[in-house]
Amino acid sequence: QTVVTQEPSLTVSPGGTVTLTCASSSGAVTSALFPNWLQLRPGQPPRTLIYSTTYKLSWTPARFSGSLLGGRAALILSGVQPEDEADYYCLLFHGGAWVFGGGTKLTVL
Amino acid sequence: QEQLQQWGPSLVKPLETLSLTCVFNGGSFRNYYWNWFRQPPERGLEWIGEVTHAGRANFNPSLQSRVTISVDASKSQVSLTLTSVTAADTALYYCARGRPRVRGIDYWGQGTLVTVSS
To answer: Given B44, B50, B104, which is nearest A89 (Cβ)?
Structure first.
C-alpha cells in the first residue's frame, strides 16, 4: 500500500513564498501519477487548485503553481495572502486508485 | 454554472446501509469520472471509489467489499451505498467530478455529514 507524505505543518509570513511537497513511498512522483492539490478550509468542501501536476482551474489564484521538484510533487505559493491559511492535500493516482497525503496545515503569520 | 448537489440521511444505525446521491447540474455528465470521498472527524481525506457514466467502477481496496457506486446517466446522478456501517464510517462524504485523461478532480459537492450511531 503506497503511503503519500506531506509536511505536517508550515508557517509563512504574508507576502512570502512557501513550497509544499508530496512524496510517494513507491518512488519518485512523476506526471504519470497526475498530482492534484486541494485546499480545505473549515466548514467548506475541498477546492481543487492544481491538477495533473501543473494545470490550474478557472478559480485558482495566480499565486498558486504546481511542479515536480526532486522526485516530489510541489505546490508553490508566491505572495501568500492571509486567506491562504488552510489545510492542503495532495492526491496521487497510484495503480488505478487515488491516494491522499496526510495534509499540510499552512499557517500565515 | 456547473455544480454538484448531494443528499442523503445524516444518521445511520450500526450495521445498516449508508446511501447518498449526487446530481450534476449545468454541464455534461458523459465522459467524466464520478468520485466519492470522505473525511472522518479530525482526520484526513480518503477516496472511496469512482465510476464512469457508463457504470465502470473502481474502488479503494480497503472499502471494496462494502461499497457500490452506481450511475443514472439519464438523471446525471451518481449514488453511493456502503453496507454494514460502523462508527468508523462516521464522516463528511463528498461527491466530486473527475476529468478523464488528465485525471483532474474539479467540481466537488457540498458534503454530507453522516453519523453512524444507534
So the answer is: B44
d(CA A9, nearest CA chain B) in Å: 14
**pLDDT digit string (tens) for A80-95?**
999 999 999 999 999 8
Amino acid code (one letter) for B102:
V
Instruction: Say whether B110 sits in a helix, a strand or coil.
Output: coil
Question: Which residues in chain A are closer than 8 Å to B96, comparing Cβ atoms?
Answer: 46
- What A26-31 contacts at long range (C-beta under 8 Å, 24+ apart), as own/partner pairs, is A26/A2, A26/A94, A27/A71, A28/A71, A28/A72, A29/A68, A29/A71, A29/A72, A29/A73, A29/A92, A30/A68, A31/A68
Provide the chain A residues 6-35 that lie in CB contact (below 8 A) with chain B: 34
Q: How far is B108 from chain A (nearest CA, A)?
A: 7
CA distance A14 to chain B (A): 26
Cell numbers placing B38: 470522505
The residue written with cell numbers 512557501 in the block is: A18
CA A61 and chain centroid, separation: 14
- Closest chain B residue by Cα to residue A49: B106
**Which residues of chain A fall short of a pLDDT of 70?**
none
Task: Render pLDDT for B7-28 as a digit per residue (tens, 0 to 9).
Answer: 999 999 999 999 999 999 998 8
What is the DSSP secondary-structure string of A30-72? Answer: -GGG--EEEEE-TTS--EEEEETTTEEPTT--TTEEEEEETTE
Contact B44 A99 (CB under 8 A): no
